[in-house]
Specification:
Helix content: 10-25%
Largest sheet: 5 strands, mixed
Length: about 725
């Protein structure tokens, strides 16, 4: 499906959602960032999450074993009347401190924020805990946040087991009425350095940007760390974070950044993500290394061999000096294993040849191997060096015969002869190099020529040509969009489907569009008859619905090698109470709406959506091919381009809309108010006076008071007095 069709499909989905019944359009909890976005094995620590529609948050879901989390606190964005109430309560406490009872202990993470922002200490009295709590709460509220979608805060505690597998997980929040979108969360092996968390960034006003800049104490501009470690931070507008460390002569340091990997797309940012810039300085302040990316990926990596003992500093900022609380990073630094390339980048199912690897810190390292039950597709491999696990690299598995590129094969005259079908593992190793492969074909044969390179982390920007024996061009392709590629903004891999015009000898040419080359410019080139197939994505990756109702999902079909047939979408082994009627994605179509009904679930459940299709109707007795739909998030990059970002599972919550959770704090019983006497109507007054406030205003005030009281921010006496005021105003 090309980008134009993709945009149309997404527009159709947006329109369908807009006109859906209200019962089916529940607000989904949203999290925009989690900080820190990971932690070390065998540790317990607090994280801060910013988002919206997080009221009644009650639990955290982390994918995979070995990581658990619990909610510590929820800090909704205070409205102006609530801030006024808290300020009034604060004045009363400071005027009569002995009259108030002691309150709950402060949240440790909020206390670190208070210390970082230099909040004045309250008087040392028995009301100190409540005074401090109110000061923290009011001080942490930004009336005009840079992003309202990040201004509701959740504090959670995460525990990572000592044997938790290193690598990426997914973290979600659960409320009474929904499950949030997922965000990446990493399990690390190294000690972690975590900067103080940011308060919500303020909205910048043109000409007054300086008033919205983060006010950091000078001692936080630079942090002292010991390698190896992982440094965690957030970048504010105009900010540069620095880390000082000691290094020894000969050390081969890898300083790698995770930023876009943590938040793939920031919809209201240009270029659409946090673009980190990484620089390394020696003791004299001289820049000795710099990176603003790693090959075609926005997250930079620095490789540096230390020339002499001494102190060094690495610094990170945004390329455009933008910043906000969701500009989050993790930087791992030290003499650590890092795989820059493997070859071959794939192998035959059940019999892959062990690839060789290149990189840094790989002495004695062992590369993981595919399991015996790995089917066709792309899997992740890592290297293990003395217990440290490297970055992951993709490895493709296929069922076709495999062969390696054999030089010289740079022209038709010396082309490498191959028999179809075949997958060729090669690389473009010299600038301007072309690899040419010769095969024999028959008239009207359908032929697919496809490159896997960029999707396997190769920097190759491939270009392919099909010519006949006289050099006449039969077919050509540069880029081919693959919507299964997720966050990849450049679909650089080539692919074409063509028909051979006559019997004869043909030549496939592959090169790099810009003429670049190197050992890491590997590729897998498939030349075969079409293998019709499809892949599915189901959006969104979490859904909530009221009892006895239904919800709608969007199912996208990515058709391969010319497959145009119908695809039947169903639920596979649904939990008790869940059901769905099969839906057919019509021939040549790429989108269908899939509706299902839900039963009662005390907690979120995982659903599995599958699609089945007959790929080859010409073969008698052939059976349908079944593929699982991969859950995904529809994410927007820089106002326009949209991407289907894969998620690990499809979470569904069915809730009772009538259920109201019990109050967190019950107020003492109040005597009933005295009856209101009838209004006096004198000779000059023929109608009763108008009330001071409307019923809606009084109702809103009562809700604000109740919420603040239940959160332990108001004393009994203050709460009672304000309720009396509301009664008198009616």
């Amino acid at each position: 499906m090309n980008r134009h069709l993709h945009q149309i499909a997404l527009l159709a989905w947006i329109v369908a959602m807009a006109i859906a019944p209200a019962a089916h359009a529940q607000k989904r909890p949203y999290i925009g960032y989690v900080y820190p976005a990971g932690g070390q094995q065998a540790t317990t620590f607090q994280i801060k999450l910013g988002g919206q529609d997080l009221d009644a948050v009650n639990s955290v879901i982390v994918s995979g074993p070995g990581v658990t989390a619990r909610i510590v606190d929820y800090l909704w964005r205070l409205q102006t009347p609530e801030v006024q109430l808290l300020n009034a309560q604060l004045k009363e406490l400071q005027r009569k401190p002995a009259a108030a009872p002691a309150m709950a202990a402060e949240n440790p993470m909020m206390m670190t924020e208070m210390a970082a922002e230099k909040i004045p200490a309250a008087p040392a009295t028995d009301v100190q805990p409540l005074i401090a709590k109110i000061q923290q709460r009011v001080h942490g509220t930004v009336q005009q946040p840079a992003s309202a979608a990040l201004s509701n805060i959740v504090i959670a505690e995460v525990s990572i087991a000592a044997n938790a597998t290193p690598g990426v997980r997914e973290l979600r929040l659960v409320t009474l009425r929904g499950v949030s979108n997922p965000l990446p969360f990493f399990v690390g092996q190294l000690p972690e350095s975590v900067r103080q968390p940011m308060l919500s960034a303020s909205l910048q006003v043109l000409g007054k940007e300086s008033t919205a800049l983060r006010k950091r104490p000078p001692e936080e501009a630079e942090k002292l760390i010991t390698l190896p470690c992982t440094a965690n931070g957030q970048i504010a507008s105009g900010e540069v974070n620095r880390y000082r460390f000691h290094a020894r002569t000969g050390q081969r340091l890898v300083i790698s950044t995770q930023a876009r990997q943590l938040i793939p797309y920031i919809a209201d940012a240009v270029p659409g993500w946090f673009q980190p810039v990484l620089a390394l300085y020696d003791a004299s302040g001289r820049e000795v290394a710099y990176a603003d990316d790693y090959r075609f990926q926005p997250d930079p990596v620095i490789f540096y061999q230390v020339p002499k003992d001494g102190e060094y500093v690495f610094a990170i900022s945004d390329a455009l000096y933008r910043g906000r609380e969701d500009f989050i990073y993790r930087i791992t630094a030290g003499e650590l294993p890092f795989v820059t390339s493997i070859f071959p980048m794939g192998g035959q199912v059940a019999n892959p040849q062990p690839p060789s690897m290149t990189g840094w810190g790989l002495a004695g390292a062992k590369l993981s191997t595919p399991t015996t039950n790995s089917g066709a597709g792309i899997i992740a491999l890592t290297a293990n060096q003395a217990g440290h696990v490297s970055n992951s690299v993709p490895f493709a598995l296929d069922t076709l015969p495999e062969q390696r590129d054999q030089e010289p094969n740079d022209s038709i005259a010396i082309a490498q002869r191959v028999a179809l079908p075949i997958i060729i593992n090669g690389n473009i190793d010299r600038p301007g190099d072309w690899d040419v492969f010769q095969f024999t074909g028959k008239a009207h044969d359908q032929l697919v020529i496809e490159v896997l390179a960029r999707r396997l982390n190769s920097p190759l920007d491939s270009i392919i040509k099909l010519t006949n024996s006289t050099g006449k061009l039969i077919a050509f392709n540069d880029d081919c969009e693959d919507l299964t590629a997720g966050t990849n903004p450049h679909h650089a891999d080539s692919s074409l489907l063509t028909q051979l015009p006559a019997d004869g000898t043909y030549f496939v040419h592959i090169g790099d569009t810009a003429g670049h080359a190197g050992k890491e410019f590997g590729y897998r080139l498939r030349i075969s008859a079409p293998r019709p197939d499809f892949a599915l994505r189901v959006v969104p990756s979490s859904v909530s619905l009221p009892l006895n109702s239904s919800a709608v999902l969007s199912v996208y079909a990515m058709r391969k090698d010319g497959f145009t047939g119908p695809i039947t979408v169903t639920l596979q082994n649904p939990p008790p109470g869940f059901s769905a009627k099969p839906v057919v994605i019509p021939p040549n179509q790429t989108l269908a709406k899939f509706s299902f009904k839900g039963g009662s679930t005390p907690a979120p459940v995982q659903l599995t959506v599958v699609g089945s299709a007959m790929l080859d109707n010409s073969t008698p007795g052939s059976t349908a091919t079944v593929h699982t739909a991969v859950p995904a998030e529809d994410r927007m990059q820089a106002f326009l381009w949209r991407h289907l970002v894969p998620a690990s599972d499809l979470q569904v919550l069915v809730f009772d809309p009538k259920y109201q959770p019990p109050p967190k704090r019950v107020a003492p019983t109040r005597p009933p108010p005295p009856p209101t006497p009838p209004p006096f109507i004198g000779p000059l007054q023929t109608t009763p006076p108008m009330p001071k406030f409307t019923k809606s205003q009084i109702s809103g005030r009562l809700q604000q008071l109740k919420r603040l009281y239940e959160e332990g921010l108001l004393t009994d006496s203050f709460y009672d007095a304000k309720l009396t005021e509301c009664e008198a105003a009616q």
